[in-house]
Amino acid sequence: MSTKSVQADTSKISTLRLGAVLKDVYFPENNEELLKIYAKIGDKQPTVLGGISNTLVVEDTNEPVIMTSLLKEIIISNNYLYASSGDSLIRICNLALEYGLSGLENLSGIPGTLGGAIKGNSGSYGSAISDFIDRVYIFSWDSGKIIELQKKDLAFGYRYSSIKQDRDIVLGASFILQPEKPQEISKRMQEVAFMRRSTQPKGKSLGSVFKRYEDVSAGYYIEKAGLKGYSLNGMEISSVHANFIVNNGGSVDDYLCLINLIKTKVFECFGVKLEEEVRIIGCKQCTKNSL
Ligand SMILES: Cc1cc2nc3c(=O)[nH]c(=O)nc-3n(C[C@H](O)[C@H](O)[C@H](O)COP(=O)(O)OP(=O)(O)OC[C@H]3O[C@@H](n4cnc5c(N)ncnc54)[C@H](O)[C@@H]3O)c2cc1C
């Protein structure tokens, strides 16, 4: 049973290996447990987290947190694949390969859970997760009900879905994939893995920090502003990919300061207001104003 809340140190979970300790965290293992948690704390607004690969928890919210990473169930039948929101996208892609189902190859290698990927419509190399979705199942914190949605109901766009932040909890989704020889699928997954290795830094990060600005990558502006490779106390604007900030021993504060620095410099240089792709939880601000 996972209907009791526990303390969770997000620095141990996050792919950045930084983050605050949250004191009131629920890890439901199935929908029934989530419903029981709702019966207990439904009057409070929780924060929802998956794999914390695109989120920085800078301080405790002092409110309940629902972590969906233990909601795990995968069903595969013919060219239909259902996965629960806590399943990792990497595992889902690998299982699709094993069962000779193609479509998800370009998404292989994206860390985090299916729930996070659907909320932010994760994508790479010209594909987005929404391209393959049939149905999404959410738990509405407003109504206390499980709702089945079709792809068209979710208004997917670039790193966007209409899933309401923290009020809709993704429980799972089904995909329609295409049968194909596993060797062919595997070949494309290897190509994607090669591209990732060649263009993205190794090490601890949250992936892309900023969204594209009018179809131009944020990395372009950051590099042109002269910030690629800039390091602050062991937190580095990657010299491999300027839209990644890599933790080589820095702090949450250093990460926040680099975000501020990038936004300020890019605006000064190009008049462009970059918007974070990374979600920041908590109100703590960068304290190093001299940057
Ligand atoms: C090395 C690296 C490479 C990456 N490459 C890519 C890439 O190529 N493309 C890409 O799009 N992203 C990329 N990312 C970012 C990240 O992996 C994805 O955005 C991922 O889908 C986030 O999933 P998560 O479970 O970690 O979400 P979290 O960080 O836990 O949460 C992200 C958001 O989703 C919400 N959320 C999480 N779970 C649920 C749920 N069950 N229901 C409702 N809302 C939920 C949270 O509230 C939050 O707003 C990369 C990250 C890293 C570290």
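^ flavin-adenine dinucleotide complex. Helices lie at 10-13, 31-41, 89-98, 114-119, 182-199, 218-224, 252-270. The chain has three domains: 6-67, 74-198, 202-281.
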